[in-house]
Design goal:
Layout lengths: L1 E7 L4 H12 L4 E5 L2 H14 L6 E4 L5 H13 L2 E8 L14 H25 L6 E6 L12 H20 L5 E8 L22 H12 L9 E4 L3
Parallel strand pairs: 1-2, 1-4, 2-3, 4-5, 5-6, 6-7
């Protein structure tokens, strides 16, 4: 079976930078995302780095169960086993607590929490117990501290952190490694939303953040880093 690395939200930003570095290190990569055009363009760039390992893109809304199951089915059909899962997909929402609606709550929780749970569960089911699997849950410093105007976003990220810590306890003693990543603000499309006018000049370069993450993750055969917080100066 061929070992693969899966990155949700892999078409841009931090996810794409992680995919780029994995491809450069000789890993077989599959990026996931909801926008087919963005995925295809990202995949073309990855193939320019290393076409031999055949980087792939799969359109997948990880918050929809049938989409994540389709990813699992694809792995089985193509005799692939997941070596690294990077749960990177997410979305922000920055509004006052009195402006929240049911649809906004569902949207943020689907992107930041439900999708992480569904994709993780599917990959766990599809990965033989004798195979080593490293699950990297990329959250945010908003999973560590509450912030004004980020109530529902923080709630989803705190939930993702709780899931990560409980998962680590559940899988202790198995060949499953759980790594939690808490990055601060980065210069990505994350901030391209109505009402946001952030000065990103002091925010972190996602390429450098990806390098920090992979320096720790790819050394997991020699040592295991369980939690990483990455802040800007």
């Amino acid at each position: 079976m061929k070992k693969v690395s899966i990155i949700s939200g892999g078409a841009s930003g931090l996810g794409f930078e992680i995919a780029t570095r994995l491809v450069r290190s000789g890993k077989k990569v599959i990026i996931l995302g909801r926008n087919g055009d963005k995925l295809n363009k990202a995949c073309i760039k990855l193939k320019e780095i290393d076409a031999e390992n055949e980087p792939e893109a799969i359109v997948c809304n990880i918050g929809i169960e049938c989409d994540t199951k389709s990813v699992g089915d694809y792995l089985v059909r193509n005799h692939m086993v997941t070596e690294y899962l990077f749960n990177n997909a997410g979305m922000g929402l920055f509004v006052k607590a009195d402006a929240l609606t049911s649809s906004l709550i569902d949207k943020v929780f689907e992107a930041n929490l439900k999708g992480m749970i569904l994709l993780t569960s599917e990959i766990l089911r599809m990965t033989p117990k004798e195979e080593e699997l490293t699950i990297v849950n990329i959250m945010s410093t908003s999973a560590l501290i509450g912030r004004a105007d980020e109530t529902i976003y923080c709630a989803a990220k705190f939930g993702a952190r709780g899931f990560t810590e409980a998962l680590r306890t559940e899988l202790k003693g198995t060949k499953r490694n759980i790594i939690a990543i808490y990055p601060g603000g980065m210069r990505t499309d994350f901030w391209n939303m109505p009402g946001q006018n952030k000065d990103l000049s002091t925010f972190m370069d996602p390429a450098l953040v990806a390098e920090k993450i992979l320096n720790a993750v790819l050394l997991s055969d020699k040592m295991l880093v369980t939690d990483i917080t990455i802040n800007r100066r």
